[in-house]
Fold this sequence. Notes:
Layout lengths: L1 E2 L3 E3 L5 E3 L7 E2 L10 E4 L2 E4 L7 E6 L13 E6 L13 H4 L14 H9 L4 E6 L8 H13 L3 E6 L5 H10 L2 E5 L5 H8 L3 H14 L2 E8 L7 H15 L4 E6 L13 H12 L4 E5 L9 E2 L6 E6 L2 E4 L20
Parallel strand pairs: 8-9, 9-10, 10-11, 11-12, 12-13, 13-14
Antiparallel strand pairs: 1-6, 2-3, 3-4, 5-6, 7-8, 15-16, 16-17
Helix pairs in contact: 2-3, 4-6
Amino acid sequence: MKxxxxxxxxxxxxxxxxxxPHRCYIGEGKTGICRIRKNIDxxxxxxxxxxxxxxxxxxxxxxxxxxxxPGSIIFSIGNFGCxxxxxFCQNWQISQEVPADVxxxxxxxxxxxxxxxxxxxxNIGVAYTYNEPVVWFEYMMDIAEAAKKEELKNVVxxxxxxxxxxxxxxxEVTDAFNVDLKAxxxxxxxxxxxxxxxxxxxxxxxxxxxxxxxxITNLLITGHNDDTRQFTEMVKWIAGELGEDxxxxxxxxxxxxxxxxxxxxxxxxxxxxxxxxxxxxxxxxGNIASATGQxxxxxxxxxxxxxxxxxxxxxxxxxxKGKCTRCGHQVVKHL
Length: 335
Ligand code: SF4
């Protein structure tokens, strides 16, 4: 438990959390939508500070990040809770349910986590992932500051639903983001996630302006966000606002949690890959056995520069500065 940042006193005994665009009013003894930020005697607390739901080393490609130290591994940490209610959540056991005895679960101080992270000398940093890290902001920031001192990279895997002020603070310690852009309509965000699209677009623009590394994931769900016109609009927006070098991961959906639509077809994934490639230089397909959308090609000369097979990665066509060995084009900035 730790006193939260970003809140103000509300009406009567309420407090108002200002961390994410929900701006929850929280009554005495209650938690906000994320279930882990609680009003206790008129102060707001993060109830899960120090609690770890999952921890381990993952390939960086699993986040997914394909242009940030490709082929490396990263120490990855999850906590509990989420500020969204996605019906298709793949990690709902930790995001949508918080154990009643959460305080009795495994606890790790930032210092203990650093010891674990540094135990593997090939590890490049710490990823805040598995559930939405924005909602355990104070714990994430404490770990991220400890990681910076150890010269480790910080990677945030997020839905992007955060207010500008805490985001600016997060940007100071973060090296790379993967942001889930779940669809491109307010209707989808409202009915499928209980949030809004516009703040996520603002987050993406803010990250881009900061110069921090950014990749985007879009989960394609049969019958829900697979409209060609909306997808084309989304890709155009990414190319126009964030740049045509923005990395986009199209991820295949499988039925899970409260969503029972059939899995996304291989042909739809490949069609959408082709649409995205018309505007963006780096598009990948995830969660799928397909020869399409796995490798990285130089957008200038077409040479294959990174080979991938599941989470195995071979950087064959880049020099040590991330430039194509055939034409000198800068493909990857972090190698
Ligand atoms: S972080 Fe949680 S408590 Fe705060 S506004 Fe968002 S959902 Fe509400």
